[in-house]
Prior knowledge:
- The chain is an alpha+beta fold.
- It has a domain at 389-518: Immunoglobulin-like, CATH 2.60.40.
- Helices cover 40% and strands 17% of the residues.
- It is built from 17 helices and 16 strands.
- The strands form 5 sheets. Strands 8, 9, 10, 12 and 14 form a 5-stranded antiparallel beta sheet that branches.
- A hairpin with a 2-residue loop joins strand 1 (22-24) and strand 2 (27-28).
- Helix 4 runs antiparallel to helix 6.
- The longest helix is centred in the middle third of the chain and has 27 residues, at 176-202.
- Residues 269, 274, 292-298, 309, 325-326, 329, 339-340 line the site of one iron/sulfur cluster.
Amino acid sequence: MLMTEAPGPIERAADRRELPVEAAPGIARSDTPAVAGANRSLYAERVKIYPKEAHGRFRTAKWIVMAVTLGIYYLLPWLRWDRGPHLPDQAVLLDLPSRRFYFFFIEIWPQEFYYITGLLVLAALALFLVTSLAGRVWCGYTCPQTVWTDLMIAVERFWQGDRNARLRLDKDPWSLETVWRKSATHLSWLAIAIATGGAWVFYFADAPTLARQLLTFEAPATAYLFVGLFTASTYVLGGIAREQVCTYMCPWPRIQGAMFDRDSLLISYRTWRGEPRGPHKSGQSWEGRGDCIDCRQCVAVCPAGIDIRDGPQLECIQCALCIDACDDIMDKVGRPRGLIAYDTVRNLDAAGTHTEPISLLRPRVVLYAAAMLIVGLIMLTALVLRPDLDVSVLHDRNPLYVKLSDGGVRNGYTIKLLNKLYQPRSFSIEQTGLPGASLSVIGHDQESRPVVTVSPDQLQALRLYVTLDKNAVAALPDDDTGFAFVITDIDNGTSVEHTATFRSPEKAHEREHEHEDED
Ligand code: SF4
Ligand code: SF4
């Protein structure tokens, strides 16, 4: 006996016909009902799914993806990255109090949030591209809901056994064994959920410090609040709701159809090869019948509880576990693998008469790839060319200018210098375009060329006056004269110019006088 699954009641009407216990010699027929059958109603009460463990290359790929993605999520906040003595040494940190996002050697300031927007646009385009090529592989392998649900099911299987044991546990009256197995499952889920919520808050503060504070109950209330929120959502969505999230809560299954075409690789049952299906008896010829022995193992392993033989369905997350289950069966009955496989509609329509080549260079694929390339290049260029000094200048609004007792005019400005490097830098401030102007920075000694020092990775705001004497004001071409502040890094001599305007009352008055004389 290769499979040990015991027969039970088959719920779907189509399956109530008398069928042998074995689908083929040594292969038990699973009694798993498809919870979302082809003739589904608009409302259906939830039928609990007990996915059976699958073995095969896609299951192995999923274990690897799970280990990598969970490993990254849980361990990333603990990775250190030296940025010098004045800055956090956490490799990935969303520093909300300082309004800074650290990602290894990249630091994003609030005014550079367009990088995050660009990343989100890139992620969306990548999702469109992958979906048009190979269906919902994101859902099947890397979506957090899939990964955590998979983990919760693995834990459940560890404490309660595989599908039949779990079914029995739920069907039998409560016993001491039921209590301890269920308790162990839920406690393990809770531990995973707490670890998930804990890891999340570590992305927003120094992880070792916050971990210590959380354990000694000295952490901020918001940290406990978010650990609680994420614990609850992980426990409920991953442990309890599972496939219901993918089917009813997530909008992606409804949108994804727009990205498919006849050349998208989707998990498909090759009807032309499998039908007519039915149990296969020992020594029976395969002539005139399909390769599907109706063992329903593809349904038994499906975490969405569907029968892929009914055709493509909204609930299918394309996890490919049904491929593993069916390949295993095909090996056992001596038929070629691939009765369920990643295949295109174009190839399915060929019904085995010939093989349609997979076409990768389709208009939509090229379009998504080109859009990704353009956005990626723009982001990369912006990142490489981004300045290590940001300057902003704000002219005083009230008063616009001050007329001095000696006939001169003074304008006030607020200059902000943002030093993006991890070392202190000194900058001299000069102006060009206003002959005879003098500069003075409030709080600094009066000098012709003020020098200010800005701490590493800090923004420094300065109040600065530009003054013109009476003669210089008279020589101005207009009452609104453009000029530029020149900010020079003292150490390396690089300069940044920032345009500004000098306001003066004289020209306006002069023009008024001229008009009066003409009149
Ligand atoms: S498709 Fe494969 S796994 Fe599914 S019932 Fe047929 S033979 Fe069994
Ligand atoms: S039908 Fe197959 S690919 Fe789709 S969710 Fe079920 S097991 Fe995964």
